[in-house]
User: Which sequence fits this backbone?
């Protein structure tokens, strides 16, 4: 396999720390066994990045496709922009002209150095995905205990898990201090993206932002963060305004009541009001904005409502990958006739939009190309539903899960998705 179809430069400048404090080599990688990975409690971020990621660098340099990178390769098949393509763009490399642009990238010597040193690098991560823990006021059905304290408590109560996840690494003063110190001493630190839990209610978010401001790094570093649109913090907004650039991510699945069912703890009226408030602030401050979606079998039918809103507001829509876990929540669990309903709705929305350049855009955050980005994203979901294998055999697992959660929550999916009653009844609902 050629490097053009497999290589990603991300391991030379990016890494992730997850909610438990374990390191992962990429924000887009398929989930690992978290407890088997090195932790900030036992390994410094510097050691992890320079030595602990050497194997993944060797695989990239050998033209291999690491198993953990499968989701990036999958989304590329459907015309969706992958994390790999975005990271290539950051170093000035394009797939269309891979060989020529690879020879001209200023990172070429770093790749050669790692090749000669068994995958080791002297670099420090300039781009972090920072998972702040699972402190969250929502309990989304497609989420997991490691990312939502509210869902974790519910899972324990209904018997899905026996123990709550370990405490967040940011609650350990020594770990948080080590991490902040690493950021302060990183040359060319460029981008930090924060997720939770819910970032705005996690104290460590404020602490890290304040440390960056206090150390005069705010005009060097771009901050990205995602909020679930259920809360507001004026002090955080004021801190964010100190930074050179901010990328605001607003999580919502659709502008239909089923959003409340899928993102339990949310209220659609509050979400819409909060989203407009964030949009106003972002425009005042000149921040970039994206609506962050995770389409599932429960919400994909009304995905067109997001594209419609985003087009009217001139905002990009972004999802990291197609949903992988939980498997029974994938949109591909829909049988063919139900998939077609979604495809038809997406196509109807696409047909209403102005004609755009069919050439793929990799910089999906370019505010001047929002229309093209939205159409491109909608087309990727259309093609995904058209071509991915049927997984309707997972429907009984979905129904069992929903019934258990509904006993806890005293609600019913049929009140939100009457269109699926026959489908769910046939699977045991």
Assistant:
């Amino acid at each position: 396999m050629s490097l053009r179809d497999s290589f990603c430069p991300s391991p030379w400048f990016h890494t992730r720390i997850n909610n438990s404090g374990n390191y992962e080599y990429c924000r887009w990688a398929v989930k690992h066994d978290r407890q088997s990975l090195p932790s900030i409690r036992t390994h410094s971020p510097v050691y992890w990045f320079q030595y602990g990621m050497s194997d993944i660098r060797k695989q990239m340099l050998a033209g291999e496709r690491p198993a953990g990178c499968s989701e990036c390769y999958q989304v590329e098949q459907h015309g969706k922009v992958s994390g790999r393509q975005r990271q290539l763009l950051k170093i000035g490399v394009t797939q269309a002209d891979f060989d020529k642009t690879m020879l001209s990238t200023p990172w070429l010597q770093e790749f050669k150095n790692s090749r000669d040193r068994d995958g080791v690098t002297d670099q420090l991560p300039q781009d972090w995905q920072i998972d702040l823990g699972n402190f969250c006021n929502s309990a989304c059905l497609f989420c997991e205990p490691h990312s939502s304290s509210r869902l974790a408590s519910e899972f324990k109560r209904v018997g899905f898990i026996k123990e709550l996840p370990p405490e967040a690494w940011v609650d350990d003063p020594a770990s948080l201090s080590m991490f902040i110190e690493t950021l302060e001493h990183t040359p060319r630190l460029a981008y930090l993206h924060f997720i939770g839990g819910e970032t705005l209610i996690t104290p460590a978010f404020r602490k890290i932002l304040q440390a960056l401001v206090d150390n005069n790094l705010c005009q060097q570093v771009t901050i990205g963060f995602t909020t679930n649109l259920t809360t507001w913090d004026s002090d955080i907004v004021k801190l964010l305004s100190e930074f050179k650039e901010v990328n605001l991510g607003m999580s919502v699945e659709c502008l239909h009541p089923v959003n409340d069912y899928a993102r339990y703890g949310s209220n659609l009226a509050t979400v819409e009001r909060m989203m407009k408030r964030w949009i106003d602030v972002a425009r005042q401050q000149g921040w970039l904005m994206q609506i962050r979606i995770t389409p599932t079998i429960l919400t994909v039918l009304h995905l067109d409502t997001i594209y419609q809103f985003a087009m009217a507001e001139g905002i990009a829509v972004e999802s990291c990958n197609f949903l992988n876990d939980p498997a029974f929540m994938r949109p591909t669990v829909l049988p063919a006739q139900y998939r077609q309903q979604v495809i038809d709705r997406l196509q109807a929305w696409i047909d209403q939009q102005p004609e755009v350049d069919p050439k793929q855009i990799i910089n999906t955050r370019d505010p001047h190309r929002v229309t093209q980005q939205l159409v491109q994203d909608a087309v990727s979901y259309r093609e995904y539903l058209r071509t991915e294998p049927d997984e309707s055999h997972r429907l009984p697992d979905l129904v069992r899960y929903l019934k258990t959660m509904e006993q806890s929550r005293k609600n019913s999916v049929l009140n939100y998705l009457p269109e699926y009653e026959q489908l769910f009844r046939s699977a045991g609902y």
User: Anything to note?
Assistant: Residues 3-116 form one domain. The first helix runs from residue 45 to 52. The chain has 17 helices and eight strands.
